[in-house]
Write a structure and sequence with these properties.
The complex is a heterodimer of chains A (419) and B (449). Chain A is built from 15 helices and 11 strands. Chain A is an alpha+beta fold and 419 residues long. The longest helix of chain A is centred in the last third of the chain and has 22 residues, at 276-297. In chain B, strand 2 (26-32) and strand 3 (38-43) form a beta hairpin. Chain B folds into 2 domains: 20-232, Cytochrome Bc1 Complex, Chain A, domain 1 (2-Layer Sandwich), CATH 3.30.830.10; 255-442, Cytochrome Bc1 Complex, Chain A, domain 1, CATH 3.30.830.10. Chain B contains 18 helices and 12 strands. Classes of the chains: A alpha+beta (419), B alpha+beta (449).
Chain lengths: 419, 449
């Protein structure tokens, strides 16, 4: 009796033990990250397409966004109207993102409807209808969306900055496209590009769910068997930015602004470079200092930050909205000078680790965020578990390492002031 | 042997399911401290973090013309020094030591502050929250700096066309007492805010019997209760504030506002006054279902507007409030489609009144959709806490707790009743924001604001 009781308790406890992450390949070599945890009620399936803007010529800018909108408008098995009905029924949420290094589309639903969502996603990606009527509706929407990007000063200041910073580089091609490129994308272009993405490009699938893998593995392999990676597929590595060996301050104007916006970029090591992590940690510490100086001590701004992008080709950023841009930029320089003289302290690194820890756990809570993060980390860093390893690295890094790396990169600031 | 097994399973099942009350399938517990502070504890999420939130019944609706914007400035001052961590530097240092991710938000009828931190620092987080909420210093130098920070926030908001448009719509709907809807506030009032005004808000609204302490995440009820008593019991109870307001006058006729901005897409809105919560709550559930039906992708409005390509996106929202709730139809579109979209919207409302249009099946779908949205929203412990705090402020925890059960009770006849009582043939505010060229071409007969 006692043994039986213990056995029951062990079984119950076992069923409570954490979930796990497994990576497996479909029959045709597509990588699938499967992150299972018993407590999850909601599942997300995210498809990542490696490459982003580097996947296509500039005269096709916007094509991946166009595509990810168009596939949602009906497939061989599910008409547009069927998809609408099923999205309501399953609480299915579809979101997508187009970026410089990748494009992605996510399907989020309750565990009960996981297989239904998978079936819809597979059908959308393998046999979309691309009806001309829908293509024209999406085209109009995209063109108006491109025009409207200039309305928001926060977006506009970075658009203008990117025109300068990304010139002569693949990233100059906007993931959302341009009026002239979106106007000329045809149904055949969309079909051809989808074929390229699902049969020649590298696809990565990141799943976060409350359903154990053994229940789903065969179903996933079967549903996604249409995806292939060309044998001689090579990872797209964009070229390095050209350095501008001086600081630059540029101006742009916009009507009806009540305050001014300062955007700044400078070069950083790429994410695959060993210097990247010290640079990222150092810039997070500098971001805190910038916030305290510009906002807390001087009351110059509501919004300011500094940080590292995590792109395959990389840059650092500084941003502030303020009525006093000259004072804000002057304080920025003082902080950079102070850093070069004094560096960061171990205390600052320890504090940062505490904040990273909380945000790491917060990010794990939501299935869609975790699905995106696992996939993103795999695409960009080659390791779905990058965040956990990054936290361990923060725990071990010493101020000297950060100071050495950042001292080399904190220079040649490119400013743009929108007023 | 068989009996013993059944007995063991029964005990386990009992312990498993009955270790507390349940809210949205999560265990929860509430208690009142002697000073009137309501403590709401919810075990949620599988990560080792906790969100500690203080929700206060304050915000735009408690403002007068003389202090319009100060609820929001007060919220900023919460993150400055207090009796224990005196300067902003000390305060920020403590935030980093405890690994706190934080924010504050001022709405029309609530002000909420949250700290999310690792559960191992939970007790220290409770202590930190207690000092921040009970003992702010409102140092004059800090106040002067923070006024500028808030002014920059205000300037940023008003640099965005969509924010200006939203404010104009609100001002038209609630013209007489707009200051009770204007959380961001008046520039001059913020510029001249004093320490005394901050203390006045503190004395009137920041009292335990006008606040709730909401804790969501990896918690143990006993310990949480102990820490709540230990750190929040000294918060002094005072006379509760009065929330009796002169009602916002209803529109006596339709109003149209046309605003011309540097925009590429046209924004079009139609807003009605909705049922105020706390008066006829059954209407609030019915309006939530009504707006959900009109958003369903399988229904005619979506097909006629989105699938047909007439609008880029649209939504219907019911902003549940005590002091002037609104029901809003919003869409983003090409200016030339505005008249067609308006006609389709009104036509849909008319159709909904007919006997065979609203079926039990549609009603069921809408209820399921609201339920699914709810569960998706509470996946994150911060969002869960903020949701609880919001509903507690606008009415009470029971409204939140019984919300899905009350939705189940809504019938087709309830939908028709609220359509009749709040929407059909009722005055509304029509808002259009467009560019100069479209204003001349499509809206020449309307007066530009």
């Amino acid at each position: 009796m006692k043994k039986l009781f213990i056995l029951i308790i062990v079984i119950i406890l076992f069923s409570f033990i954490f979930g796990d992450v497994e990576i497996f390949s479909s029959n045709v070599g597509t990588n699938i990250i499967y992150d299972y945890s018993k407590e999850r009620e909601i599942s997300t399936i995210t498809f990542f397409f490696d490459g982003g803007t580097a996947n296509y010529a500039r005269d096709k800018a916007g094509i991946e966004r166009f595509l990810l909108e168009a596939i949602q408008k009906g497939s061989s098995k599910y008409s547009e109207s069927d998809i609408n009905v099923l999205m309501d029924k399953y609480g299915l949420r579809i979101s997508f993102e187009n970026n410089y290094d990748y494009s992605s589309i996510s399907f989020t639903t309750f565990n009960n409807y996981f297989n239904n969502a998978l079936d819809i996603a597979a059908d959308m990606l393998s046999e979309p209808l691309f009806l001309n009527k829908n293509i024209e509706i999406i085209r109009r929407k995209m063109i108006d969306n491109i025009k409207s990007k200039e309305e928001n000063p926060d977006k506009y200041v970075w658009l203008k900055m990117n025109d300068w910073f990304f010139r002569e580089h693949q990233y100059i091609s906007l993931p959302d496209g341009y009026i002239e490129t979106v106007s000329n994308i045809t149904r055949d272009d969309l079909k051809g590009h989808l074929d390229f993405l699902t049969k020649k490009n590298k696809v990565l699938i990141s799943i976060v769910t409350g359903i154990p893998l053994q229940n789903e593995e065969n179903i996933i392999k079967e549903k996604l068997s249409f995806m292939k990676t060309e044998k001689n597929w090579k990872k797209v590595i964009p070229s390095a930015f050209k350095d501008i060996e001086r600081d630059t301050v540029m101006y742009a104007e916009k009507e009806n602004l009540q305050t001014e916006y300062v955007a700044c970029k400078f070069l950083l090591p790429s994410v695959t470079n060993d210097a990247f992590i010290p640079a990222r940690i150092g810039l997070s510490i500098l971001s805190k200092r910038i916030w305290e100086t510009l906002r807390t001590k001087h009351g110059l701004t509501y919004a300011t930050y500094m940080g590292a992008s995590d792109k395959k080709v990389n840059y650092g950023v500084f941003y502030v909205s303020t009525d006093y841009p000259d004072s804000a930029i002057s304080l920025f320089y003082q902080e950079m000078k102070k850093f070069k003289k004094e560096g960061v302290t171990q205390r600052e690194i320890d504090d940062l680790r505490n904040i990273y820890e909380t945000s790491f756990y917060m990010n794990n809570e939501k299935s869609d965020e975790r699905s995106f993060t696992n996939g993103y980390n795999f695409m960009i860093y080659g390791d779905y578990d990058h965040n956990a390893k990054f936290m361990k690295r923060v725990g071990k890094i010493k101020p000297k390492e950060i100071n050495n790396v950042l001292s080399e990169y904190l220079k040649n600031y490119q400013f743009l002031i929108l007023r | 042997m068989k009996k013993t097994l059944i007995f063991i399973f029964a005990i386990i099942a009992f312990l498993w399911t009955f270790s507390g009350m349940v809210i949205l399938d999560r265990e929860y517990k509430t208690l009142f401290l002697d000073n009137g502070l309501e403590v709401i504890m919810i075990k949620a999420g599988s990560e080792p973090i906790v969100t500690i939130e203080i929700a206060v019944r304050n915000g735009a609706y408690t403002q007068s013309p003389e202090n319009c914007g100060l609820s929001h400035l007060y919220e900023h001052m919460f993150f400055k020094g207090n009796k224990k961590w005196k300067s902003q530097e000390e305060y920020s240092k403590r935030i980093r030591e405890l690994g706190i991710i934080y924010n504050g938000m001022t709405s029309n009828e609530s002000v909420r502050y949250f700290f999310t931190l690792p559960s191992r620092n939970f007790e220290q987080g409770m202590k930190f929250m207690a000092y921040a909420i009970m003992d702010p210093l409102f140092d004059s130098t800090e106040l002067a700096k923070e006024r500028n920070v808030v002014l920059n926030e205000l300037n940023r908001d008003f640099s965005e066309p969509s924010y200006k448009f939203y404010q104009m719509n609100e001002e038209t709907m609630f013209e007489k007492f707009f200051y009770r809807k204007n959380a961001i506030g008046d520039k001059n009032i913020v510029e001249n805010a004093t320490r005394e005004q901050m203390l006045e808000i503190k004395d009137r609204y920041y009292i335990p019997n006008n606040s709730a302490l909401v804790i969501v995440g990896d918690i143990d009820f006993k310990k949480t209760e102990k820490f709540a008593k230990k750190y929040f019991s000294r918060w002094e109870k005072k006379n509760p504030p009065s929330f009796e307001f002169e009602e916002h006058p209803y529109l006596d006729s339709n109003k149209v506002i046309l605003t011309v901005q540097d925009v590429a897409m046209t924004d079009f809105t139609i807003s009605y006054r909705g049922p105020d919560v706390g008066k006829k709550n059954e209407d609030t559930y019915a309006v939530d279902i009504l707006t959900e039906i009109m958003k369903l992708k399988s229904q005619n409005l979506y097909k006629n507007l989105v699938d047909a390509g007439l609008v880029y996106k649209y939504y219907l929202s019911y902003y549940t409030q005590q002091d002037g709730a609104t029901i809003t139809f919003y869409c983003s579109l090409s200016a030339e489609n505005t008249d067609t979209v308006r006609a389709l919207f009104f036509n849909e409302l008319k159709n909904m009144e007919s006997d065979d249009y609203l079926t039990e099946e549609i009603l069921f779908q809408a209820k399921e959709k609201v339920k699914m949205n709810f569960y998706q929203d509470i996946e994150s412990s911060v969002d869960f806490a903020l949701g609880v705090g919001f509903w507690w402020c606008i009415l009470d925890i029971d409204y939140f707790k019984t919300y899905l059960d009350n939705l189940k009770k809504v019938k087709v006849s309830d939908i028709k009743r609220v359509l009749k009582d709040y929407i059909i043939d009722k005055p509304y505010v029509e808002g259009i924001m467009t560019d100069t060229k479209s204003a001349k071409k499509y809206f020449a007969n309307k007066e530009v604001k």
